[in-house]
Each structure stands twice: as structure tokens, then as C-alpha cells.
Amino acid sequence: MKKSLLIAAGLTMMVTLAGCPSDPTPGQPTTPSATPSPGETSSPDPTPSTDPTVAPTANPTPVPTPQQPLATPTPPVNQGFSLVSAVAVESKEKPFSYDYTIVGTGFGTAADYSYFQIEDSSATIKVVDNGAIKSNVEVQNVVITPTEIKFRWVPPFGAPTDQNLIKVNYLLSGESQKVSSTVRLAVPGDGV
């Protein structure tokens, strides 16, 4: 019987020791028991609520949208000087030829250009080639100043037309090809 009392007392002590944590040693944290004590109940992991009345919470702070700066039109990369006006007047000295005057800024001189040509709608009039002014049957009297281009042109077909688009293609030494802005040609007496 003494043996059974000793076993019962040992079991009671083990249950007591397992259920009651001992005082922690100073400086060491307490760790919970891995096995539940007889008074504890374990509950299953909580599951997400599927209640339709519960809505997810929105962020109460509004997120500002970045303002895009207004786009400013930029000229094409190869945009050159701007033309102001262009006039072609039939020559009184030489029939079937037209004296052109094109006004703008920053034209420079003929020696500045590898080539310089005027486009009059579908026609191309080359007035400078390799830094030299052209003078032939079609193109004569070429003068290029910083603000004006003048030349006489004998069109191979017909005559220039009022409101044709005029622009200049050119290549300065050591630069890439550029194209001027366009301007409408005025031909006095055309279409009257």
C-alpha cells in the first residue's frame, strides 16, 4: 500500500508541476507549456467572416493624382528658320520667268551652306550647291542675305501658282539637314 501511495503522491506532484508554471529565473522569460493544462480548451483557428453586411474598409485618406503639365507644341527636331513671306512676280525683262523674294530671319550667306533649295509645292529650285550660288538656264540672279532670298526662276512647266506652299531645305556645314517653316506664295495677278 505504501507503494501505491507513493505513486499517487508522485502523480499528483507531476500534475501540479505541469499545471502550475514555476517562478521564472530572473532575466529569463517565461514560456508557456506546450501541452494544454486540464482547464484549457483549444479552439479552432478563426475563419474569415462571410457576412455580406461587412464591407472592406476604404482608405480614408485621398490619394492625390499628379497633375500633368500642359504640353507645349515643340517644333520638329530638324526645324530651321522661319519664313515670313514669299512673293513671285513675273519678270518684265525676261518673259516666262519669275522674280522670287522670300523674307525671313537668320538666312546667313550662300557660303554658309552645303546646299540650299526652295520647294515651291511640287517643284524644287536649287539655289546653292556646295557653297556656290547656282546660275544656269533655270535659276539666275541669286542673292542671299540674313533676312532675304532673291532669285529669278524660269519654271520648266507652266508658272508658279498663287497660294503654293513654299519652304526651304538646307544643309549648313557640319550640321544635319534642316527644313524651314512653310509660307504661302503670293503671285500677283494669278487667278484674277
Kindly, what is the distance between the CA atoms of the first and last residues, rounded to a whole number of angstroms? Answer: 142 Å
Q: Helical proportion?
A: under 10%
Strand content: 25-35%
Main beta sheet, described?
10 strands, mixed
Given the helix and strand composition, which structural class is it? mainly beta
Figure out the total of helices: 1
Q: Are there runs of 5+ residues with pLDDT below 50, and where? A: 71-76
Strand element count: 10
- Mean pLDDT over all positions: 75
The radius of gyration is 48 Å
SSE topology string: HEEEEEEEEEE
Q: What form results from the Cα inertia axes? A: rod-shaped
Topology:
Elements: H1 2-19, E1 83-90, E2 98-104, E3 113-120, E4 123-129, E5 132-133, E6 139-144, E7 148-153, E8 165-172, E9 178-179, E10 183-186
Parallel strand pairs: 1-10
Antiparallel strand pairs: 1-2, 2-7, 3-4, 3-8, 4-5, 6-7, 8-9, 8-10
Any overview of this molecule?
- Mean pLDDT is 75; it is low at 71-76.
- Strands 1, 2, 3, 4, 5, 6, 7, 8, 9 and 10 form a ten-stranded mixed beta sheet that branches.
- 15% of the residues are buried.
- By secondary structure, the chain is mostly beta strands.
- The protein contains one helix and ten strands; from the N terminus they run H-E-E-E-E-E-E-E-E-E-E.
